[in-house]
Write a structure and sequence with these properties.
Layout lengths: L2 H15 L2 H10 L5 E6 L15 E7 L3 H11 L5 E5 L13 E7 L8 H11 E12 L5 H17 L9 H7 L2 E10 L3 H5 L5 E9 L1
Parallel strand pairs: 1-2, 1-4, 2-3, 4-5
Antiparallel strand pairs: 5-7, 6-7
Amino acid sequence: MGFYDHHIAPRIVDLACGLKDAQRQRQKVVPRAKGRVLEVGMGSGHNIAFYDPDKVEMVWGLEPGETMRNMARPKADRVPFDVEFLDLPGEEIPLDDNAADTVLTTFTLCTIPDAAAALTQMRRVLKPGGELIFLEHGEAPDAGVRLWQHRIEPIWKPLAGGCHITRRIPEMIQNAGFTINDMESGYLPGLAARLLVFAAYEHWGSATAK
């Protein structure tokens, strides 16, 4: 990992993911998590403050980036439940089968190199009846935006920590053996999203294993 990937890209991602409009989106989904939670791609810890401490027993924060984990630790120290960091990628979740009551993924499936393998792992560790809660951006429904997404993605990925902007999130979740229970979709509101509309189409909701 070079200097940019280790020092610069994590801070750009932290800044982008910490925008007010993105935080409002997190507030819609993160409080739904309960029990023993696996957060895949914890990043710099933007979700930590949105967990409901009355519903959450503990959180495993899966995050392969050392810089991101270091940025998240102070946030984890401020909450009343345990946060255990796991320094492996989404394709290698080091938990037993049926270990988690909830799996949470926010703005993560875009960056995992083998997202299909990661979703298979999430399904493996999720208890029967447990929920996958997701907030992800991906391919837009509008032809004009999609055209620019495919043009920009080769340039965007190395600048934004490997972020893919053309992934079909609902299909990926369903192909991994999940049933989507509820889902909303739309463009992230706000000025920043309008300027970066190619990265602003989102899906959020929940799914359970078939």
